[in-house]
Amino acid sequence: MLTPAATTAATPRHREHIVDQPTVLIISDDPDFPVVISSRWQSERKMPAFTLMSSAVCLDFDPENFQLAIAGRIRPEALAVVMEAMDAAGKRVLFVSDDTRAIQSVRDRWPAVVVVRQQESWLETLLLVAGEVLHRAAAEFHARRAEQQNTLLERQATLGRYMLEMQHTLNNTLTSMLGNSELLLLEPGSLSAAARSQIETVRNMALRMHEILQRFSSLEKELRVVERQSGKQIGAHAAAV
Known about the structure:
The chain is an alpha/beta fold. The chain is built from six helices and six strands; from the N terminus they run βαβαββαβαβαα. α5 crosses α6 (193-240). The chain is elongated, with a radius of gyration of 31 Å. The two termini are 53 Å apart.
């Protein structure tokens, strides 16, 4: 299905599922060109979504909305504009043409662009190359997501280690706060009603922080138990093997 670029929106859900159904942007000034490509792609097991743009509006594209651009049958005077826009966005581009001069120009100025010469069986070649490019894009997407997740886990682990290191210091601080606030509250008449209310608030907040630290300690013990059990299971499995 061909979708005009003007109706395509980059939603978070769309970005989350770019690997499940990638989107191919077709840039052409010939309305038959994208129809030929999409019709041939329908016979494949996996078919991407398509967005169509003419060279006149290609500068309005959102690079987050597609993983591959296929450019073909573009007005000669617009070729450089299209290629420069794609190159600046860092997008993968397949250029389809039967014009030897245009092909050589693209190869010389934009060596990263993959050229598919429009001759016999060019559609099969195009789909084969495009499929490989989309597969590589999906692999890179998974790698980036895994790297982001690892970075997040490392940050969380650093925070956890810091909490463990500071737990004793925090407990001592809370003990001091609780002890002093209790002593002040035990002296009747020495405090105004407002001051007494404020000290009670300090004591109550310290108690809440103490409860949180106690839960943190309990979680730490549970994790250690799970870790020991996991180690025993791994050791038993290795011994059995």
